Amino acid sequence: MKVLLHWRMVLQSCSLCINMLLWLDSVPTLTMLTILRTFLDQKEHAKGQLLMLHGNTHRPPLIHRQLDEERVSWLALAWDRQVQVAKLVKSKMIRHKDWKLDSAAVGIAWLNDQMLAVLNLKGQLCLFSKDGSELRRTIFILDGFVFDDSILYHTHFSNRFGNPERHFNNSVAVRGATVYILGPSFLTVSRLLPWKERIEALKMAGDWMGALDMAMKLYDGHTQGVVDLPRTVDSIRGAIMPYLVELLLSYIGYVFEYISIALSNHTGKGGAIDGLIDADRSLLTQREEQYARVGGVAVEFCVHIGRNDILFDTVFSKFVAAQSGGIFLEVLEPYILKDMLGSLPPEIMQALVEHYSGKGWLQRVEQCILHMDISSLDFNQVVRLCREHGLYGALIYLFNQGLNDFRTPLEELLSVIQNATRKDATSTCYRMLVYLKYCFQGLAFPPGHGTIPRAQLHAVRKELLQFMLEDSKMLTSEVFKGFSSSSGKCPNICYLLWMDTEATLEVVKCAFAQENFEPTSSTLDASVSKDEEDTDIESPDSQNILLQSVVDAIIHIVGLENEAIHSVVVGTAESEESELWPSVSDFGHIVEFVSFFVSYKRANASQRVLKHILKYLTSSTTSYDDKKMPPQKEVLQLFNVVPQTDWNSDYVLNLCLDAHFHQACGMIYTARNQNLAALDSYMKDTMEPYHAFIFINKKLLQLASDEALSFRSTVISRFAELVNLSRECAFVLVIDHFHDEIQQ
């Protein structure tokens, strides 16, 4: 774009002379030449430059000097294709920048304190910054003229060969933002366009994007090549802001009018949308794309200049008037997800949610809410919209982040589950479980929003667990009636157990279980120390008390304190939709949950509860995978932590014999001091034969006198079986205890 305008003034006489050297301060010319000579004496090419000053065999340098606001004098020199800028600070000349031109200079002048105007032999007028960056370039030779017709020169000086040489002294001058170039018969005036005229020129040329881009650059303070704006960015923004708003609205009006005319010409009905749909659906698609393109430009422009009020008031109103309000709302989505729009006015939020809900885009509008600044929203309005449209992920986010409230979202989700059928409530149930799991693990919900502060984590866990143990207030639900009639009460956790017992218990376990349990007598201390390290404030006693409350509640719901467990019927017995809880697999998950914490000394259980646990673990229905501990290992761990007085050894021994739990049988026999029976049991365990040798080694070290002799004899008599069981272990046993009886 050309920003320099030219016009010609025919002169009555060519005697007009414009002084090319403009001194903007009161320093005498002789003093300046002395300073310049001192400056050049320090350069490697000082001799040649001084010759130019004196007008010897080289072209004299073109010199221009100015004074800026801080009283620092600037000096610009140009000769041949070289430009040099220096500054005078406290009577000391300092080189600032030098650069080369693509054509020899014929004139140089300061256009203001930041720009240099340089004319060259190609007839070009170039604008440079003080740092040598080229800002603009145009041709000052008018059409139909040549170089010699456009600028005045003389040939009073000759070169070393005696040939006259052109000199352009006093042919270029600057006043304000205007450059005057004196020609033989006319004066060429080049004016640097003001910022507003530049944008208007782009508009008139139809380059709206270029005009808006220039406007945004000016707003950012990129004013190189502009001479009619304030110096500070804030002052610039204040000066141009009204025009920026006017420019955007003009652009929108121009494009909307163009679209309307195009549709009118196509349908012949004034651009009616109904007629357009019948006539040509592809044109309707093009119309929507054009409106979306305008909306994107408007959003980016308003966000860039910080005028969201214009965006959501005037601009949105124009789209609504053009029956394209929905398109405008859809345009907002990517900018919200990129965090460029952190808040929306209440009426825009209302329209956005309703528009997206009508199109079935609930997940998309929920993602928009998750990217908004809660403090800038109408909280009550957004909560109401989330409730009405089932945006529970956004609802959790609003309460957690906005009010630091973790309980209310649970109440909201539970209310949905209580008032829906099992099929309809499934998705809400799993959302609730995911929310609980994140909170128990110390993570903020939804995913990707950081963590819960460590100082708050214990209180959050306790609050949520206590809510799950509270009695349900929905007295009319089928789940409440079923659990109440069976166990006498219905805590809130019953709804989750009824929906998915395994998933619910795994989530609850996240509030207490540690990643690494050591099944030893010091397990409790180790896990407690990990808890303290994990939460910083949670005491072992308070955590175990809360865990015991959860375990007791589950035991009571299922009826593990009774001989027969409870069977909960949800729905009427005659109804085909009635369901029985717990199923066999559900009961197994509950028993494994209780057994897990009892075996690690995190919770206590009565004899009757232990009886149910051991009966389940030794039953043929028990199954396990790689993620679970084998049933026999669980039984052994229970034996290690539960006093023998709490379980009937005869009853448990029969269970273990039927289940072929040889290690468990060996442990029971050992507790009864029946060593030979214990040895038989251990030797039957071909999967882990080393237990038999560990038992033998231990007893040989413990027993004395006749018991020791009898036991040694039994081991020797069965040595062939031990060799078959494990040759390596048998060899070590001989070396350690039977080296004197090797032959035998």
Automatic annotation (TrEMBL):
It comes from the Eukaryota. Residues 327-512 form the Vacuolar protein sorting-associated protein 8 central domain. One of its GO terms (cellular component) is HOPS complex. GO terms for biological process: endosomal vesicle fusion; protein targeting to vacuole. This is Vacuolar protein sorting-associated protein 8 central domain-containing protein.
